[in-house]
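fwd from M.: "can u put these together and see what the complex looks like"

so here's what she sent:
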Amino acid sequence: MADISISAIDRIMRKAGAERVSEEGATTLREVLETLALDISREAIALAKHAGRKTVNAEDIKLASRKLLALTKLGV
Amino acid sequence: MADISISAIDRIMRKAGAERVSEEGATTLREVLETLALDISREAIALAKHAGRKTVNAEDIKLASRKLLALTKLGV
């Protein structure tokens, strides 16, 4: 794990309005995001293969995200 | 947006098994993750405030993630 930088996580949390964030808080959010990213990526890769492509494209990611998150509010 | 680096997204997608990823595929996954990160952060901040704290901690992030994602499989 640990592909997303803690500084990126910190920036996002400050944008959301956080005054202070514990180190464990930031690393936990990183873990959640990386786990989701792996799940979405695996699903998107399967969708690309299903379509006869080796390249994962934006539509694969959108479909995979909708399927795994069921979050239409993401607007993707 | 654009807080998470594209190189981080690329690393995660390769770990998931991707051979090739379009530029739009990577930027779309970044958007999905940043949107989720903002939503989880806002919820976590509200939970910290509710508990009388200014510091967002790991438990706030875990509770917020469970609430927003309903993904017990995340193991957080």
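replying to her w this: The radius of gyration of chain A is 15 Å.
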